[in-house]
Every structure is written in C-alpha cells, then in structure tokens.
Give the backbone structure.
Amino acid sequence: MGEGIIGEELLMPFISSANIACGYHAGDEATMQQTIENSLQHGVAIGVHCSFLDKQNFGRTEMKLSELEIYQLVFQQCTILEKVAKSLNASLSHVKPHGALYNMSARDEKIAKAIACAVKDFNPQLSLMGLSGSCSISEAQKIGLKTIHEVFADRTYQNDGSLTPRSQPNSLINNPEAVTNQVLQMVEKGNVTTTTGKIIPIIAETICVHGDGPHAFDLVTAIYHCINKKNIGIKAQ
C-alpha cells in the first residue's frame, strides 16, 4: 500500500494488515500519511514495506549490497514510517521487505539475518513477515524475533517453495476463483500446488495480495468473502 495506486483505499475494509511503501521503491511522505490515516480508520495493522532504493524499477530488480548496507536500508525505512505514524498517534506492528529484497532474503541467510537484526534493533516488539518456510523466517527466529509465515494468493509457486519469477508468463494469478482455491488450499490443507503439479507443505499465517495488481480489488474481496464464508476469519497477527 501507499504506492500511489489509484483506488487502493477501497481495499482497506477487506484487509487486516497494510505493508506501506516508505519512499524507496514508491510513495512519499504524503502517501504514507494518507495510507496510515486510512489504516487507522479501518483498524488495519500498519507495517513497514522496506525495499531497495530503486523507484525506477519499483524495487523489483536485485541489487548487490553489503550486509551493513542492507541493515541500514531497513533501519532507515522503519525510522521514516514510524515518524509519520507517530505524527498521527499510530504505531507500527510489523515489517515486510518488498520485491527483490524480499526474494533475496528468502534464499540468502546473510541478507535475511541483516534484515532481521535491523528490525530487532529498531524495535524488538515488531514482527517480521517473510516467505513461508524460508531463510527470512528461520534467521529471524534464531535471534528471537517474532515471525509471520507469509503465503501469496496471486502468485504461483515453484517446487522449492519459492515464488515463480515475474519474468515467467505463469507467475501471476489474476482469476478470483483460482486465487480463492489456492488460498483455501494453503489455509485449510497446509499445502500448495506448484506450477509442475507437485503438492508441497506450506505454513499460512498471513495472505499477501499485491495492491499494485490490476485485479487487486476483485481478488481481495473474493478472498475476504470466501474466508468469512468458511468461518475462518481474518485478523492481524
């Protein structure tokens, strides 16, 4: 959220947590303020959506940075969003890396540790969202940080549990029925079917839908109604 997408405020009644861009891959102080205000209005948990400093590529291009640089990158964005939040008497609940930084941390222990350490040093009460079962989760748990296993409603999976790269044509799921079927499989059965048809285990503690997707509203509302129809319920971790 907070990425300058027209109409994203319409999603607020149907979500429990918002990952808010901090100006590095998208957004600015005005969008951060507006998104936090919308979150407060609807009781949505406020999270830091930290990324590489790369608006040109929307934070979705990998960059080679040292562990210290990654640590500083995350810490700085936490500081930026917290300042805006405090001005509105709001507080942060979690941190979720964005784009390339997220995917790199999922498979690289050193990057994952740098991110986790930055979050813990900034505020040990914050939770870290990471790809379910990945290095992001395990490295954060090693240092005692609260974690939230994240699964994706609108992305397909590879056999190793990673997300299908966006460069591949079958990486995105835009059909509401297909999205809700995948969500229910992950939530109720604890597994997901990969692009090759293999069923792999997965832990679903939070469900991600990309707010910048062209079908975001349709997908989010479909998930919301499907989950509630099953009496599962949606709430922030």
Summary: The domain at 8-229 is CATH 3.20.20.370 (TIM Barrel). The longest strand covers residues 146-152.
